[in-house]
Amino acid sequence: MTTDPAPARLSVGIVSAGRVGAALGEALDRVGHVVFGCAAVSDASRERARTRLPDAAVLPAAEVAARSELLVLAVPDVELPALVHGLARTGAVNPGTLVLHTSGANGVGVLAPLAGHGVVTMAVHPAMTFSGKPEDTDRLSSACFGITAADEIGFAIAQSLVLEIGGEPVGVREDARTLYHAALAHGSNHLVTVVNDALDALRTALADTELTGQQPVESRPGGVAERVLAPLLSAALDNVLRSGPAALTGPVARGDADTVDAHLRALTAVDDDLAEGYRALSLRSAQRTGATHIVDRLRRQS
After folding, report:
1. What is the C-alpha to C-alpha distance for residues 30 and 48, in angstroms, rounded to an integer?
2. 19, 88, 118, 218, 267 from 14: Cα distances, Å
3. Which of 136, 174, 178, 268 could form a Cys-Cys staple with 23, CB 3.0–4.6 A?
4. What is the pLDDT of residue 146?
5. Terminal CA-to-CA distance of the chain, rounded, Å?
């Protein structure tokens, strides 16, 4: 009886051991690749390297690059071009090296200085938010990864790496990377802002009316306001992912312009900026539902 040979194990270097780099390095290590080293400058990065990648030596970025078969560039978007140019200028990356970055906003174009050195370049972005905690690694196995590559070889390698760690590879065109990243930022980052605004308003609404035995309403996370909102938020997110625009409920969906006006007056009494955020999102919701009378009223008020 013959068996298929195991996939080739790669010697992996990480630059740097930030939230994304530590999680991806740990995920690759779990499936048998050897994370031999990482670049880590800050105290937080060094601590992540020590606890999450204990077998990896902390080395200068150039040395990590020189020894890697798979080089993962997990630096912030703004630092990526300078890092790539520096590695290319010094010849730190050997021909034949697999080089991927984890930036959502960039495709493979940013790696062009290295592509001329005979390396395989890939953009592999995990569509997930990272806390810097160990559970980030577990979440990668249920995440999608936006993949852009210069050729079919790069696509095949990136796809294999993502599948190995349990993720779902999703192809993204080079010219669509900015739009792809904007969509993710709009959906995730702005959700955090909207929820925090809602919590601020709810805490004000609930203040000074606690029932006997009720936990006092506080400004720190994990309190009464969060418990009130949590089931509603979870249901709304589940509904929109399952049902699309039909999941919208509330006064805009009902065409109730008077209630929207009342909401705006109440929110303005709490915070003008919070009310302006509600107005903007109500306008967008009304546009999507075709509630033209609400659209017209909100535009006249702005």
Report:
1. 16
2. 12, 17, 20, 41, 47
3. 136
4. 98
5. 74
